[in-house]
Amino acid sequence: MKIILISLDTLRASRLSGYGYSKPTSPYLDRIAEQGVLFERAYAADIPTEVAHTGIFTGKVGLTTGIVSHGSELTHLPKSIPWLPNLLRGAGFTTSAVDNLYQLKEWFARGYRYYTNSVGGNRWIDGRTVNDLALPWLAEHKDESFFLFLHYWDAHTPYLPPESYIPDFYEAGRDPYDPDNRSMERAYNHPAYPFFKHHHYDLVGPVTDSAYYDALYDAEIRYLDDRLKELDAQLEKLGIKEDTLLILFGDHGESLTEHDIYWDHCGLYEPTVHVPIIMRWPGRIPEGRRVQGLVQQVDIMPTVLEAIRSEKPDGVDLAKVADPPAMDGRSLWPTILSEMDGTHEAVYLSECAWQAARGVRTNRYKFIRTYDAGPFTRPPRELYDLDADPEETVNLAEREPELADQLERQLESWVEAKLNGREDPKDRQLREEGLPFRRRIEQILAASGMTWDEWFQDPCRERFDQAAEGRH
Q1: pLDDT in tens, 406-454
Q2: Which of 60, 119, 175, 377 has the greatest count of CB atoms below 10 A from its CB?
Q3: Rounded to an integer, what distance in angstroms lies between the CA atom of residue 454 and that of residue 109?
Q4: If you write DSSP's letter for every residue of 116-128 in order, what string do you get?
Q5: Backbone phi, then psi, for 113, in 5-degree steps?
Q6: Close Cβ partners of 30 (under 8 Å, ≥ 6 residues apart)
Q7: Residue 338: half-sphere exposure toward Cβ, Cα within 13 Å
Q8: Together in a domain, 334 and 369
Q9: Residue at a domain's end among 344, 363, 391
Q10: Of 25, 30, 28, residue with least CA distance to 169
C-alpha cells in the first residue's frame, strides 16, 4: 500500500475550476477529482500554515494540542501527542517527506525515515524542485509500503510564475504598470505594507494594477497543476498508480483583496478557510463522488488510519494504526461511500498570527469574534448568512443580535469544553508575546526608525519608503 499526502500551500478552493472557477487553473486536479472524490465544503479549522499542518498530522484542532499561533516562540508540541508519520513508521511503512516545515518547528520532521528539506537559496520553493526530489525517491521505493508527504508552495507569495503562464489569466492589452491605474493604492498604503514590500511587492515590481496580482496567483495554480500532472505520470510509469491512496489538500486559502486583505491568508473568511480536499484510490474510492457536507482537515488522519486497517497491507502491524485517543477528526469514509454527507454539523475556526479571532461555520451561517485585529480594522463581532451573502459583505451581528448571541455562546461552550480547565493558549500568546506577525512588522519598522504607533496612525507607502531609504 502506498500513501501520498500532498499539501498545496495557500490554495483557495474557489480559485479551482473543479470548485466552480471560470478560468482554467486546474485541469489536471479536476481530472484527479473525477477519478475519486472532491469535498465541496472542506475547511481549515486553524490557520495559517503551522497550526493547520499540526492539526492534519495529529487529527486534533489547535485547542486540543495547544498549538494555536503561527510563528510563536511560545509553542511546543509534546512528543507524547500521537503524530501520523510516527504511527505509520512504527507500523512498518517507509516514511518520507519533501518539505521545509522543519524551518518552522522541529516537530514537522518527526517520524520520517527520509526527510528531504526542500528549502533553497530563495524564500520561495518551485514545484519543480519538489518533483526533482520526489520522483527519484518514488522510483527507488516503489516496491515498498510507503507514506510520502509532499509540500508544494507555488500558490504562496511571492507569486513568480513562469512568464508563459500569465497570458491565460491576464487580459491581453492590459498594462500592469499603467500609471493611471490606482487599484493598488489601498494595498500599498495598508498597515501591513512594510512586511509585504520586502517579501512580495519588491520581488514582483512596481505594479499598479491589482488585477495583475490576481492573474499571477491563477498562473501559479496552473503551473502547480502541471507539476501534479508530472507526479501522476511518474506513478503511472512506475506501475503504482492503482495501489496509491492520493490525498491533496489546501492548508489554507488566500484572500485576493477581500476584506482589506491583500494577497495573504488571514481572516476567518471563506477565501482563506474554505480549502480543497481531493482523494483518489482506484477501486476503493468511487469515481466522480462530490461530498457536499461540512468536513475539515483534521478528518484526514483518521481517514488514512481507517484505510490502512481496511486494506491490511502485508508487513504492516495493524495494532499500531488504531485511532489515537482524543482525535477531533472523524473518518471521511462514510462520506466517501455515500453513507453520510459531511462529518461535522459545525466547524470551529481559529487564527492567531496577523490577528486573533475565532469563529463557527454552520451549514448556513458564520460567526466571527475578533480579540485583536492587529493591522486591520474589524468589528468585535461579525455574522454572515452564507446562503444569501456568500462573499460575506453584510455583517448581520447588530441586525440579528439574538442569532449572533446564540452562535457566540455555542463558540464559547466549545472552547470551554476543549480547554477543560486549561489556560487558553491564545490568551497566553497575546499576554506574553502579542500577535506574532505584529512583531515582524515592528522589527521592519524599527530598522527604518519608526514605531508601530507612528506607522499605524499614518500608513503611507511613500513615508515608509523614504524612512527606509534614509536609514540605508
Answers
A1: 999 999 999 999 999 999 999 999 999 999 988 888 888 888 888 888 8
A2: 60
A3: 41
A4: EE---SSSS--HH
A5: -70, -35
A6: 16, 17, 18
A7: 8
A8: no
A9: 344
A10: 25
Query: Can the peptide bond before residue 302 be classed as cis, meaning omega within 30 degrees of 0?
Result: no
- Shared domain for 108 and 223, answered yes or no, is yes
Position 77 pLDDT exceeds 80: yes
CA–CA distance, 411 with 416 (Å, rounded to integer)? 9
CATH number, position 388: 3.30.1120.10
Provide the β-strand partners of residue 279: 37, 247
Domain count, the chain: 2
C-alpha to C-alpha distance for 428 and 83, rounded to whole angstroms: 25
For 311-326, letters b (16+ CB in 10 Å) and e give bebeebeeebbebbee
Position 204 in a domain: no
Q: Cα dist. 182→186, 382, 419, 420 in Å?
A: 9, 30, 47, 51
Buried b (16+ CB within 10 A) or exposed e, 145-166: bbbbbbbbbbbbbbbbbeeebb
**Could you tell me the three cell numbers for 318?**
495493524
Q: Which domain holds residue 358?
A: 348-470
420 CB-near residues (< 8 Å, 6+ apart)? none
Domain boundary among 293, 326, 344: 344
Same domain, 236 and 296: yes
> How deeply is 356 buried, as exposed, middle or buried, from its count of CB atoms within 10 A (0-12, 13-18, 19+)?
buried
Residues 92 and 125 grouped into a single domain: yes
Distance of CA 234 to the CA centre of its chain: 26
One DSSP character per residue, 147-182 reads: EEEEEE-TTSSS----GGGSTTTS-TT--TT-TT--
- Give Dmax (Cα) for the chain: 66
- Collapsing DSSP states into helix, strand and coil, what is residue 139? helix
- Read off the amino acid at residue 260: D
| Span 162-207, pLDDT tens digits | 999 999 999 999 999 999 999 999 999 999 999 999 889 999 999 9
Cα dist. 236→242, 330, 344 in Å? 8, 31, 35
Is 265 found in the same domain as 354?
Answer: no
Q: Cell digits for 34?
A: 473525477
Tell me if 19 is assigned to some domain: yes
Residue with cell 451581528: 397
pTM of the entire predicted model? 0.96
Cβ-contact 12, 20 below 8 angstroms: no
